[in-house]
Design a protein that fits this description.
Order of helices and strands: HEEEEHEEHEEHHEEEEEEEHEEEEHEEEE
Helix content: 10-25%
Mean pLDDT: 88
Shape: elongated
Strand order of the largest sheet: 1-16-17-18-19-23-22-21-20
Low-confidence stretches: 1-33
């Protein structure tokens, strides 16, 4: 994870592998630049279960268009971002004619293989009229179960996952007003995700002691020590997005940071509780904290055109979130946790 080290500064003097038992972690994702088509379906908070299948309720027009264009041509990259439970359609979109109660949430094992259907955006239907005919719905039918981590659908504390998938989408076939694409998944890499807040990142809570944190994070960790200060360390694990790391002060988790990584799709998928991620704008940050106090300061290295924008949960500044914003007004780093979010170089 060398990209983070440039932000942690010259204080990083050595890297200590933490040896532990367990399964091998995967390598970081790489954003495709050329070659096969690439589409990303972010299904979090926008997917529901209707008692027979999964429905993506808010399909992204450009991503659906890319998939349809690639159908029947050859391998492509098709990534899914998912919550580990899916609410009932009646809970998300109650209908008095069809819904007697809100229903119950289900896991992704409720339908095997996991068929996902969606309404086809009007403009996409118009562009692909020859292929789609009168279809107004698209269903994706994998030939085998999606390649989730073994513990993810059965109680993992990491409630989200990014599936980096290589698939072969079959030719579009029509069944009434439904277009169907069969997906043959040839490879998948899973990255655990969670929501970032001033309290922590998923189960990694600010204030957690080092021993408990290491047990929680599991095997395949790298530890960076800040200069000669052995009480200041920065942890990264292979199962997380490559831009994410954990700062420990005096053996206690004090801050969780995420830094922009142009080569890692998963890094840009981590969101704060109010929806801010790497790549958001300064205006997005202010809108997300509408009506709340934000402190804006000049960036230590970028000068007046770069900014720190900080939100504190309380007047004592015990918990907060800081956004680093570059000269173009884009969020390039997010720090969440204790007053350690204001540290610029290592633990100083």
């Amino acid at each position: 994870m060398p990209r983070i080290s440039r932000y942690f500064g010259s204080l990083l003097t050595f890297c200590v592998p933490l040896i532990a038992m367990g399964a091998q972690a995967t390598e970081p994702d790489e954003t495709p630049q050329d070659g096969p088509a690439f589409a990303l379906f972010d299904l979090r908070d926008t997917t529901a279960w209707d008692a027979t299948r999964f429905h993506w309720l808010d399909p992204n027009e450009s991503q659906v268009d890319t998939l349809i264009s690639a159908a029947g041509i050859g391998p492509m990259r098709l990534d899914y971002v998912m919550d580990n439970t899916v609410p009932s359609l009646c809970a998300v979109r109650p209908n008095t004619q069809n819904c007697d109660d809100p229903g119950v949430s289900v896991s992704w094992m409720a339908d095997l293989p996991q068929t996902i259907c969606m309404d086809i955006p009007i403009d996409v239907r118009a562009r692909h009229k020859t292929l789609l005919g009168k279809s107004n719905q698209l269903c994706l039918e994998p030939t085998a179960n999606l390649m989730f981590p073994k513990d993810w659908v059965t109680g993992s504390p990491w409630t989200q996952v990014h599936l980096h998938q290589t698939v072969i989408p079959g030719p579009i076939r029509l069944d009434g007003q439904t277009a169907i694409i069969t997906l043959t998944i040839t490879d998948a890499i899973a990255t655990r995700l969670a929501t970032l807040s001033e309290q922590g990142y998923g189960p990694a809570e600010i204030g957690l002691g080092e021993a408990k944190l290491l047990k929680l994070l599991g095997p395949k960790l790298d530890q960076f020590i800040a200069g000669d200060d052995e009480n200041c360390a920065f942890l990264q694990r292979d199962l997380d997005p490559s831009g994410l790391g954990y700062l420990l002060l005096d053996d206690v988790l004090a801050r969780i940071s995420i830094y922009a990584d142009e080569y890692d799709v998963a890094t840009s998928l981590v969101k704060t509780t109010n929806g801010i991620s790497i790549g958001a704008t300064k205006e997005d940050v202010y809108a997300a904290f509408d009506g709340q106090t934000l402190i804006e300061e000049e960036h230590e290295y970028l000068g007046a055109n770069g900014r720190y924008v900080t939100w504190w949960r309380d007047e004592q500044k015990t918990r907060g979130i800081r956004f680093e914003i570059n000269e173009e007004g884009i969020v390039t780093a997010i720090h969440a946790g204790s007053d350690a979010i204001t540290l610029v170089e290592g633990c100083s």
